[in-house]
Amino acid sequence: MTAVQTPPEAKPPAQAAEQPAKAPPSIWQRWRRWWLIAGVLVGWRIGAAIFHDEDTLEIGGAELTDFHRWLNDVRDDFDAQRETNWFFKYVIGGISDALDWTVENLQELLSQPAFPRPVPEIGWLGVVALTLLIAYALAGTRIAILATVSMLAFGYLGYWAESVDLLIVTVVAVAICAVLGLPLGILMAKSRPVSAVTTPVLDVMQTMPSFAYLVPLVLFFGIGAASAVVVTVIFALPPLVRITAHGIRTVAPATVEASRSLGATGWQRLRQVQLPMARRTIIVGLNQTTMAALSMATIAALVDGPGLGEPVIRYLSASDVGNAFVAGLCIVILAIMLDRMTTAASERREVALRSGHDPRIRRYVLLGLAVIAGIAVYLSRTYTRFAEFPEGADLGGRLADRVNSINDWIVDNFSDVTEGLKDFVSYGFLNPLESLTAESPWWLAGAALLALSALIGGWKALVSTAVCLAIILGTGLWNESMRTLTTVLVASVMVLVLGVIFGVWMGRRRRVDTVFRPLLDALQVMPPFVYLVPALALFETGRFTAIVAAVAFAAPVAIKLVADGIRGVSPTTVEAAESSGSSTWQMITKVQIPMARGSILLAANQGLLFVLSMVVIGGLVGGQGLGYLVVRGFSQQEIFGKGLAAGIAITALGVLLDRVTRYAAERSERRVAGA
């Protein structure tokens, strides 16, 4: 059958009419927002030159504002009411006493002398045997061997008691997180109102740098184990809540509907369908919470929390790189042990089903290990040599001496390189930017930041910035906040550059990803304290040391996000670009990076927050700004209020950076969708 052809002249006039060609956008239209941003920066620079060092709101190290003195008075009132106010005495005091009792009894059981005994109730041999039993029960043979070797390493490195103390605080905090977080996550998944109320709270909790939690909790719980556990719970709770809710929501709707049609009640659906199917996801959340708890429990040494944080802080303050390295190594070993144990626990059932092993063998092995553990506990309670590690087993001192020798060699031979890099970043970027932010009038800097936030993130970012800047201004620490902002911005740019370079490389080359991803995973397991040790070894104390540690801490997450974004670009699009003759550079800059823009902006957001949390901790190694004030606030009672104000300013700064980058990402996605 032949199709009827319509002659051109028979076409309707509306179709035949030619559409007028659109004029191409001008350079101003295409780059309008960037021109405006450049204009704001130029105006800021001119204003800073005219009004240099005027109205900077800088105050001396010991100088206090009325707000700081009021916070000191609040602290004194809290201290006075601990024994008189019923809320502090019975509610806060009850929680504090219960946590102190739990931690102290576990310490006497496992790590510290249990009076009148000169040793714990269960000595090192019993603890190692129990660890072997628990690790095998949860995660299998390989993890049991890893856990046993890790526990022995703590003793041989000379930090047995401190390592077990840190493990105790972490486990207690994770147990409380599980009791609170699992029901809350389930409620979020089941109830939209609960989710709507809880999500912003979790956002703020995850945005706040870890240091910001410490100071206010000291007001309620004082210093000690209870405060360490509470601050760890608050910091580590959000990942478990979020991931539990996500796991429940992502159970296949068809499966849930099938159980409903069979007459299952809501409780039965949850217990028999949703929780079992979300089990692996929930354990992943438990893994993330465990890593966050370990990180925070280490930092909680600043509030006299027990564990490895105390020797790390002591040796960092003394610039003793060798001993700080050994204590930090124990933290890394503990982090790897807990990470691998919780990860393997989430996969154990699937691995066992695939392997086809007889489950009776596993039960026999568990029974045998239980008998061995019982014998080891008896021996460690009866004989001193099985309760205390032999003094001659301390390899930590020799390792510390070796590390100090290597550090001295590096300083002697590479000081020109490290000093050159420090001077390049300091004089090329840090000092000029600090001159702009911290040495210009507060009203000029504030106006410029408001304008930039509006141009970058829109009116929502403008509102968030205005609120956060008002809070920072109210703390009386504007100048210190601007110095911290400068350090964060410089470090974040370095993180983003590394993220794009290595992320694109990993995203385009599967073999490169295979090599680098395990290293990045290992770096993400390490608590932030540990990054200070090599940075201190290379660059001594100062703000650049804090920047190096922040870049090392934040780069892995940025690199992985960019790599995943590059790999997620549609293969069809990549093939079309290749078939059109695009070069490698054109493919990266014209196709893959633009299409992975969302992942890159997310990497920038996460990089900023990671950098902020690490720059604040950098106050321990001579970093300036708000982190230094927080550290001083713990050690000097007379400026406690100033340290607390610094914690408030850090939180406001974190929220500001998070909201601006998040709203910028949303605007970018809308523009791409509109195009």
Task: Please name the defining characteristics of this protein.
mainly alpha
> What structural category characterises the helix and strand content?
mainly alpha
Distance between the termini: 42 Å
- Characterize the overall form: globular
* Poorly predicted runs of 5 or more residues: 1-11, 13-17
Rounded radius of gyration (Å): 29 Å
Indicate the proportion of strand residues: under 5%
Secondary structure: helix percent: over 70%
Discrete helix count = 29
| Strand element count | 0
Element-by-element helix/strand order: HHHHHHHHHHHHHHHHHHHHHHHHHHHHH
- Overall average residue pLDDT: 84
Biggest beta sheet attributes: none
Can you walk me through this structure?
- This protein has 29 helices and no strands.
- The chain has a domain at 113-159 and 323-394.
- With 675 residues, it is mainly alpha-helical.
- Helix content is 80%, strand content 0%.
SSE blueprint:
Layout lengths: L12 H4 L10 H4 L1 H19 L15 H16 L4 H25 L13 H16 L1 H16 L3 H31 L1 H16 L3 H11 L3 H25 L3 H9 L4 H12 L1 H21 L9 H9 L3 H35 L3 H24 L13 H42 L4 H16 L1 H17 L2 H31 L1 H16 L2 H12 L3 H25 L3 H9 L4 H12 L1 H21 L8 H10 L4 H35 L1
